[in-house]
Amino acid sequence: MRNKIIIGNWKMNLSLADAQDLTFKLKSSIKVERPAEITVCPPSVYLLTISNILKDTPHIKTGAQNMFYKEEGAYTGEVSPKMLKDLHIEMVIIGHSERRQYFNESDKDVNLKIKAALKFGLTPVFCVGEDLKIREKGEAESQVKNQVLEGIKDLNSADIEKLIIAYEPVWAIGTGKICSGEDANKIIKMIRSTIKEKSTPQISETVRILYGGSVKSDNFGEHIKYPDIDGGLVGGASLNFEEFMKLIDLASNAHSQVQSHSV
Ligand code: 13P
Is-contact 42 10, C-beta < 8 A? Predict the structure, then answer.
């Protein structure tokens, strides 16, 4: 059975003091492992501070929001997978739509980053999602499928199994417009069947696929009950301690319900 997972993507938000305060609050409220896995992704300049606070709390992981695909060298301003490993970071968001949109990251870059993350033992949180124009043209499924295929190009099944995939429709990010649970589940099912084509049926049932885009505690209950939606990649709501805790509770309860049905 797949564990549910909630990942907080803080993006370029919070002062250092606020980031520390939020982390200490999470740490003191989540003393033991929850049924849902939890990760926070602070801005890269805070990674060391936040991962140090959480180092004796292995059930709350620290992830990065981005990295370059080169190991080291003259790449001013970039952070390498090797450096993330040095900080004991276990996860890295790759191909977020904001990286694609504002920093011109291509599918090819995303593929190289996924390969580099895997080489260094980092779990890629591989983001895909269509923009509004594509959705209105009825091409959401074909574009997302294409992004998935390009992102996992040349990966073997063992590597594909290590991915977490996040379906984040661009039009739903930070807009308050949520993709319905039914629509999100439909695309996520398609992603799962694409994974099946490129690996094995067993692996396609193991890979976790999350929904992201205006996730809040008052809308996510609808999403998390769908069996193919394994959790959330959360932006704005992850900056608020109470909201983030509610999302962790929703995912934990959904996990426990699935578990009780499967025994
Ligand atoms: P919001 O939850 O703020 O819409 O952001 C979603 C997102 O981009 C998470 O990576």
Answer: yes
| CB under 8 A, 24+ apart: contacts of 246-249 | 246/217, 247/6, 247/215, 247/217, 247/220, 248/6, 248/30, 248/34, 248/36, 248/38
- At residue 20, what is the residue type? Q
Residue whose Cα lies nearest atom 1 of ligand 1: it is: 235
Task: Specify the pLDDT at position 262.
Answer: 56
Query: How many independent structural domains does the chain possess?
Result: 1
Span from the CA of 231 to the centroid of ligand 1 (angstroms) = 13
Average pLDDT of the residues in 212-229 = 95
3-state SS assignment for residue 34: coil
CATH number reported for the structural domain that contains residue 257 in this entry = 3.20.20.70
53-80 average pLDDT score: 97
Catalytic: 168? yes
pLDDT at 105 over 60: yes
Overall average pLDDT of the 61-71 stretch: 98
138 burial via Cβ count (<10 Å: 0-12, 13-18, 19+)? exposed
Q: Reply yes or no on whether 59 is catalytic.
A: no
> Is the beta carbon of 128 within 6 A of some atom in ligand 1?
no
Structural domain that includes position 210: 5-262
Confidence of residue 261 (pLDDT cuts 50, 70, 90): low
What is the residue with the minimal CA distance to atom 5 of ligand 1? 235
Residue 176 CA: nearest ligand 1 atom is 4
CA atoms 122, 12, 166, 247: torsion sign: positive
What pLDDT, in 10s, does the model give residues 147-183? Answer: 999 999 999 999 999 999 999 999 999 898 889 999 9
What is the distance in A from the centroid of ligand 1 to the CA of 8?
Answer: 9
